Amino acid sequence: MSDVILETKHLTKEFKGFTAVNDVNLKVQRGHIHALIGPNGAGKTTCFNLLTKFLVPTSGQILFNGNDITAARPAQIARMGVIRSFQISAVFPHLTVLQNVRIGLQRQLGTSFFFWQSERALDRLNERAMQLLAEVDLTEFADTITVDMPYGRKRALEIATTLAMEPELMLLDEPTQGMGHEDVHRVTELIKKVSAGRTILMVEHNMKVVSGICDKISVLQRGAMLAEGSYAEVASNAQVMEAYMGTEAAVLEGAH
C-alpha cells in the first residue's frame, strides 16, 4: 500500500468568480500528523469541506488510498474511513458522555443513529465506549451530562466520538480553538496519543501546537499552496513570514 493516504491534484473551488482554493496539490503521508495552516481567509476550511465532500470541487481530483473519491458523497467518504471532527463541539449536549460515544459506535452494528434502540441492545457497546473514554482521559466523566462539561473536555469527547467511527484518516478542524493554555496542552497531548496507528490532517491556528506535534505542514495563502515542509522549514521561509505579517510572524518565530 502506498505511503500516501490522501492526495489532491490541482484541487480548485470557485464561488461566483472568487477562487477560494486554487490548484492545490496536497499529499498526506500515512501515519503522519499533517497541519494545514495559513492566515485567515487562506482557504483552509474550504479545503477541508472539499476533502469531506461538503463542497464539490470546481476542478481537480481527490484520491484516498489511491482511489478517486472526487465524486463520492459525504456518507461514502465517512464509510471509507475519512472522519471529520468539527470546529464547533459536535456532541449531543443532553446525553451523557458515554451515550455520546455509543452513538458513534452504533455504526458498527449497522444501526447508525437509531435513537430508539433499546438500552439492552446498546449496552453491548459499553465496554468499547469505556475503552475509548479511557483513551481520551474521560473515564471519570462517563455519566456526566455533556452540557455540564468544561469546554476542553467536550473537545476530548468529540475526538472520542470521532475515534468510535474507526477513522483511517482523522480531519481535525481547529481542535484547540477558543481554549485556555491548560486545555490546549491537554488536547495537544491527546492528539499526539491518538495519532498512534492513524493519520491526522488538521487545520490549526496555534503555532505552538503545530510546532510541537506535526510531521509536515502545508501553508495556504489566498487559496494557493505557499510552502510545505517540516515546521523548521516553513517557519524560516521568507514568503511564509511575509504572509504572517506582524504578530503572527512573531508567533511563528517564538514557537520555532
TrEMBL record:
Gene3D superfamilies: P-loop containing nucleotide triphosphate hydrolases. Keywords: ATP-binding, Cell membrane, Membrane, Nucleotide-binding, Transport. Pfam families: ABC_tran, BCA_ABC_TP_C. Residues 6-247 form the ABC transporter domain. It comes from the Bacteria. GO terms for molecular function: ATP binding. SMART domains: AAA (SM00382). PROSITE patterns: ABC_TRANSPORTER_2 (PS50893). This is ATP-binding cassette domain-containing protein. It comes from Duganella levis.
